[in-house]
Structures are given as structure tokens and as C-alpha cells.
Amino acid sequence: MATSTFVYDGDCGFCSRCAQFIQRRIPTEARVIPWQFADLDRLGLTEAECEEAVQWVGADGTRAAGPDAIAALLGGSAAHWRVAGAGLRFAPVRAAAWPAYRWVARNRHRLPGATPTCALPRTPRLSSADLGTKRPL
Q1: What is the pLDDT confidence band of residue 118, given thresholds at 50, 70 and 90?
Q2: What is the 8-class DSSP label of residue 102?
Q3: Model confidence at 106: pLDDT above 90
Q4: Which residue of 26, 35, 101, 129 lies most exposed, with the fewest beta carbons within 10 A?
Q5: Which ranges in the chain belong to alpha helices (H)?
Q6: Distances (CA, A) of 96 to 68, 84, 92, 100, 129
Q7: How much is the pTM?
């Protein structure tokens, strides 16, 4: 894997807006991709992990989730964003970042740009194998 990858929930309007912000404002060589279009097996990720939090898979195979993934993304960007990433890794900030991240994840359907599909928990998704075996009503 030659490029780092930042994986987000493409079904969530809020998450998609955040990913668009990253792509427009944060210079990074990482791929920013919805998990629904990512090769999760190649990245070593599961759907459950991706539904729980954003994910980072570094070019070197390192992995991080949630605010740690955001810190990793920022750490590979322009200088002022690297400072923000370092701040997010600072122990007291990191200790507060996880509860804040979980609160946002639980309430993301209420945030700007959100849609009802942003709400957690999700209903179980049908796999492509399930879709092939279902008969029309």
C-alpha cells in the first residue's frame, strides 16, 4: 500500500461534509474515501469498525480510529495542520477527544449537513449475497 487512506461513512451527510472539507482545505496525499467504496479487506478494516469511527490506514500499515485517525491525517499535512494533529495527540487533549468524538458520532444526525441516515445505531445492512437471494414482494 503506497498511499495512506482515511476512511469515513459515506452514508452520513455530516461525515461526507467533513470529508469534503478535508479534501478542499487540508492538503494531504492520503486518499479520503467512504468505507462503502473502499476495499476493506485490503485495508484490514471491517464494516463494524468503519461504522463506529473514521479510520486511518497509513502507507506503512499503521492504523488508527476516531480522533487518533484525524490526528494521523493532520500529521501528514501542511505545517499548521500538523500542529493541530500534534495537539490532538497531546495526552490531556486526546483524553477529552474520545468522549467528544463519541458524542458527535451519537448525535451526528442532528449536526449541520446531516441526514436521517446519519443516526446510529444502524439497521443491519444486506450483503450483496443477501440481495441476490431475496425475492421481490
Answers
A1: low
A2: H
A3: no
A4: 129
A5: 13-25, 40-43, 47-52, 66-75, 79-89, 91-107, 128-133
A6: 12, 15, 7, 6, 41
A7: 0.81
